[in-house]
Design a protein that fits this description.
heterodimer, A: Pyruvate-ferredoxin Oxidoreductase, domain 3, B: about 600 residues, alpha/beta, Rossmann fold, seven-stranded mixed β-sheet, four-stranded parallel β-sheet, about 35% helix
Chain lengths: ~200, ~600
């Protein structure tokens, strides 16, 4: 078995934590798992890319066209990594743009959301959800990465049961936040399931 | 904490695995100056130490965020010559700072094992250059280990302590951004956290006067001959047979890509995977060269292995074709990845190139890192820009504030290395007629700023030196420094105030200002610019990420004239255009409120 996922988003959105939780779920099943993380300067509001590679793999970086899925906390960041996606792979993205400062200042343009989603759809199986709204509904915007994990669990891509992943989520948040994260996970799961 | 796991296996970052290896090796002393991609090594040591000290327990080792890398290395060298086990970690350019101590320390050698970790940064993800520090091993005569995985990071750290004690020589462990920041499963052993004190036994051969140095140099070369014999038998140097054919020599992160591509594409080859790369195990390499007609060397950055293999083949008069840099798109710049290595291995095995996959056809805005919303550096830059003459030169330094280079602030003109802002400010002020205002952070001030300031004061150079004092080492993850009240062990420490230090250095014009008050900051810079001679402005406000944020600000539509000063001149990333209205993204806004002083129409208010 080999599975490769690329997580993307903007520094501060919890990209690493989400990917890390998934990796731990695989490790607890005894799978080999590698992650490549981004630390340091790039985290200051820049593009963040993180990978989770599972099974008989050696490289933590994913070759072009080798990712089974892209999981993105921001639509443009999903498209930025699109060359990594296997033809027909899964793209799971939040639909809320985070506008870079250089766009506000008029140096660049943020493409229309429809155009972004349309191109994502042309390259794979698109699941786009308003993860931010679901995270707020669960109790806090910070749980957006867990909403995304719940969504990922509903894609049939993971050789993990929904319960296995949820258990790992619950085991990796402080006790006071277990309920909120479970709700976030469930809302994400349902949102993606509704699109199937 | 995963690094303290009592399970048989844990998912660890390469940097964390180094710490685990050290904890399993009964480490006594760890020192550092933080720098990406090495920072998590030290931060993990600090977190482990504080885990114990906060419970009034002895962690069994002493950890220090030293003032700079040179001090960190010297501190640990003292421990190691006193018989203790020590580890010093730093980013690649940190070893330049420590190089003066390093080069002679190799002559002297150590008694307890000393592992020096250098974390290189191919592709300059967070650095001002991508120098290949394997050459420091050759330059200084240090045994060199290069892990490829998190597991090897732990295993090689443990082996490095033993190697160092056997040879009585510090050992270099060379990480790269990818091996530091890969997370993978690591098989663990029991930790050994016994606290002990060293004892320094005096020896005239530890005072490196010329006569002693001349005695020590041949001893060092002899130690390296023994190191080579050990490299021949090192379990980290091995041949992986994958169906014979061409030989591939590789090390570090590049090995992972070679192995993955060879397996995925079923390319017949044998891989000489080198983990101990200096001194080169010449017998092992000679045998490998002899067994193959064609060799491809796959290594990131410089031709470190390739050059040595070519020299070996020439000396042994071997008939072998050695390929490396320049073959199949392998370059001596930037980080490698699977695609780069795949292209080379396809060329090597005579296969067609992989058809390229199209990137997005929609034009995407770049998203570089930026100063955070509420960052006090933005306020300092904005205020200064309003009062400084247009041709002012702004030498800058290493830290978050380098991000002031980006528009609209554009407050960074020249940068070399840690502390270079002051030295270059002296030079610009003497050799041009332009005004000079330089910038450095508080941690940089203590690291490498002081000698430059002394130089400025002594020679009466006419420049304004700004210390952006945000009370932490922000960019690398908020480590303490000599200006903070606690140290890396969690203990109370003596807090040095930047303004006291510069007064002590003889600076006569010192301003201390809170940059979040723009009017006062402008006035402070006006006075400093008018002063003839060296002046220092300490712009003091804590990093916004250290403060909890309550609420946000909003734009009052009726009052906003859309002059867009908040976006076009101040450049806070929380502002954006919603159609033609200016709004504030409340999830980004940190509620610093500085924008209320920027807006000429009073259109920004705290959101109720």
């Amino acid at each position: 078995m080999k599975l490769r996922l690329q997580f993307t988003g903007v520094g501060g959105q919890g990209v690493l934590t989400g990917a890390n939780t998934l990796a731990k779920a695989f490790l607890s099943r005894g799978e080999n798992v590698l992650m490549s993380e981004v630390h340091g300067m790039a985290q200051r509001g820049g593009s963040v890319v993180c990978t989770v590679c599972v099974g008989r793999v050696y490289s933590p970086l994913i070759a072009d066209g080798a990712a089974d899925a892209l999981v993105s906390m921001e639509p443009v960041e999903a498209l930025r990594s699109i060359a990594k996606l296997k033809p027909g792979g899964v793209v799971l993205t939040d639909v809320n743009p985070v506008i870079p400062a250089n766009v506000s200042m008029g140096y660049h343009q943020y493409p229309p959301l429809d155009a972004v989603l349309e191109e994502l759809e042309s390259r794979g199986t698109l699941r786009s959800i308003d993860a931010l709204a679901l995270a707020r509904q669960a109790g806090h915007a910070i749980t957006k990465n867990i909403v995304m994990l719940g969504g990922l669990a509903a894609t049939d891509l993971l050789p993990l049961s929904r319960e296995e992943l949820l258990d790992t989520v619950k085991a990796n948040v402080p006790p006071a936040y277990v309920e909120m994260n479970e709700e976030a996970f469930t809302l994400g799961y349902r949102a993606v399931q509704a699109q199937r | 904490m995963d690094v303290l796991s009592s399970q048989a296996q844990a998912l660890l970052l390469g940097n964390e695995a180094i710490v685990r290896g050290a904890l399993e090796s009964d480490i006594d002393v760890a020192t550092t100056y933080p720098g990406t991609p090495s920072s998590e090594i030290a931060d993990t040591f600090s977190a482990v130490a504080r885990h114990f000290t906060s419970r009034q327990q002895d962690p069994g080792f002493y950890f220090q965020y030293s003032t700079n890398e040179k001090v960190a290395l010297e501190f640990a060298a003292a421990a190691a010559v006193s018989g203790l086990r020590a580890l010093t970690c730093m980013k690649h350019v940190g070893l330049n700072v420590a190089a003066d101590a390093f080069m002679t320390y190799m002559y002297v050698g150590c008694k307890g094992g000393h592992v020096i970790v250098t974390a290189d940064d191919p592709s300059c993800h967070s650095s001002q250059n991508e120098q290949d520090n394997r050459y420091y091993a050759k330059f200084g005569h240090a045994p060199l280990l290069e892990p490829s995985t998190a597991q090897e990071a732990r295993d090689m750290t443990m082996a490095a302590f033993d190697l160092s004690e056997e040879l009585r020589l510090p050992v270099l462990l060379r990480m790269t951004t990818r091996t530091s920041h890969v997370r993978g499963p690591v098989t663990l052993g029991p930790m050994n956290l016994t606290a002990k004190k060293g004892h320094f036994d005096k020896d005239p051969l530890m005072v490196t006067v010329p006569a002693v140095a001349r005695q020590l140099h041949p001893v060092l070369l002899e130690k390296m001959e023994r190191a080579e014999a050990l490299a021949e038998d090192s379990p980290f140097n091995r041949v992986e047979e994958m169906g014979g054919g061409t030989g591939i020599v590789t090390s570090g992160a590049a090995y992972n890509y070679v192995r993955e591509v060879a397996e995925e594409l079923s390319i017949p080859c044998s891989i000489l995977k080198l983990g101990m790369t200096h001194p080169l195990p010449r017998n092992l390499c000679r045998d490998f060269l002899r067994d193959h007609r064609r060799i491809l060397v796959v290594e990131e950055l410089e031709s470190f292995l390739e050059e040595q293999l070519r020299a070996l083949a020439q000396k042994e008069e071997m008939d072998v074709e050695i390929l490396g840099k320049g073959f199949g798109g392998l370059r001596r710049i930037y980080e490698y990845d699977v695609d780069i290595v795949e292209r080379a291995l396809r060329a090597l095995s005579g296969r067609e190139e992989k058809p390229p996959l199209a990137p997005a056809s929609t034009a995407l805005p770049p998203r570089p890192p930026v100063l955070c919303p509420g960052c006090p550096h933005r306020a300092t830059y904005y205020a200064l820009k309003q009062v400084a003459p247009p041709d002012t030169i702004y030498p800058t330094d290493i830290g978050c504030y380098t991000l002031g280079k980006a528009p609209p602030l554009e407050m960074a003109d020249f940068l070399l290395c840690m502390g270079s802002n002051v030295g270059t400010a002296c030079g610009f002020s003497q050799t041009t007629d332009q005004k000079v205002v330089s910038f450095m952070g508080d941690s940089t001030f203590f690291h490498a700023g002081l000698p430059g300031i002394v130089n400025a004061v002594h020679h009466r150079h006419d420049c304004v030196i700004t210390v952006l004092d945000n009370r932490t080492t922000a960019m690398t993850g908020h480590q303490p420094h000599p200006g903070t009240e606690r140290d890396g062990m969690g203990y109370e420490a003596q807090m040095l105030l930047v303004e006291d230090v510069v007064r002590g250095l003889g600076v006569e014009h010192v301003e201390v200002v809170n940059p979040n008050n723009l009017a006062k900051t402008r006035e402070a810079f006006q006075r400093a610019l008018a002063y003839r001679g060296t002046s220092v402005v300490v712009s003091k406000a804590p990093c916004r990420l250290l403060l909890s944020t309550r609420g946000s600000f909003e734009v009052v539509e009726e009052k906003c004239t859309q002059c867009s000063r908040c976006i076009q001149e101040f450049g806070c990333p929380a502002f954006y255009y919603d159609g033609d209205r200016i709004r504030i993204n409340e999830t980004l806004c940190s509620a610093c409120g500085v924008c209320t002083q920027v807006c000429p129409s009073g259109a920004i208010r705290r959101k109720k």
